[in-house]
Amino acid sequence: MAYTITVNGKQRTVDVDAETPLLWVLRDELDLKGTKFGCGMALCGACTVHLNGVPIRACSTPIAAVGSSAITTIEGVDQSEVGRKVKAAWLTLDVMQCGYCQSGQVMAATALLARNPRPSDADIDQAMSGNLCRCATYVRIRAAIKLAAGLPTADTREV
Ligand code: FES
Ligand code: FES
């Protein structure tokens, strides 16, 4: 069945089954490979994208559920000022290690700062708790979120 969805501000039409997860539409049909497959069960956050600005798990969102909602992926995150700040902070603090989880982390962080520009540590913990990192970059992730928000950050040189 044909579905027309809006991804990073552009309308795209794909012909897939209704149950096809958005993740595979993005990666295999639209060649947007920045969104990653981790667990496939909504448990790790590697596949996080935005649906109308809200972070969702693309691995467990069927294409039929997307409708006219606006999808933003890591390839389009810098279309917003918040997304640009988050990306810049990530690069400044060299957050990535293997990088596999990081597009999901950036998407979750961007959604957090878009709705809460000055998050507390508890706010950050809550917003980011579903995004796992096997390389344990959590300290740098938190510091980058604070840097993007213009909040004081701890010294991260040793982490
Ligand atoms: S791949 Fe979607 S949450 Fe893990
Ligand atoms: S940077 Fe390797 S899994 Fe997060």
Quickly describe the structure.
The protein is an alpha+beta fold.
Task: Report the bound ligands by name, code or SMILES.
Answer: FE2/S2 (inorganic) cluster
Count of individual domains: 2
Class based on secondary structure composition and strand pairing: alpha+beta
Largest sheet: 5 strands, mixed
Low-confidence stretches: none
What is the CA-CA span between the terminal residues? Answer: 48 Å
Total beta strands: 5
Report the CATH C-level class of the largest domain: Alpha Beta
Instruction: State the helicity in percent bands.
Output: 25-40%
- Order of H and E elements: EEHEEEHHHH
User: Taking strands numbered 1, 2, ... along the chain, how are they ordered across the largest sheet?
Assistant: 2-1-5-3-4
Q: How big a fraction of the residues is strand?
A: 5-15%
Mean model confidence by pLDDT: 96
What would CATH call the homologous superfamily of the largest domain?
A: Beta-grasp domain
Task: Output the radius of gyration.
Answer: 15 Å
Architecture overview:
This protein has helices at 22-29, 81-92, 102-115, 121-128, 138-149, and strands at residues 2-7, 10-15, 48-51, 54-57, 70-72. It is globular, with a radius of gyration of 15 Å. It has a 5-stranded mixed sheet with strand order 2-1-5-3-4, with helices on both faces. The chain has 2 domains: 2-74, Ubiquitin-like (UB roll), CATH 3.10.20; 77-149, DNA polymerase, domain 1 (Orthogonal Bundle). It is 34% helix and 14% strand. The site of one FE2/S2 (inorganic) cluster has 12 residues, from loops.
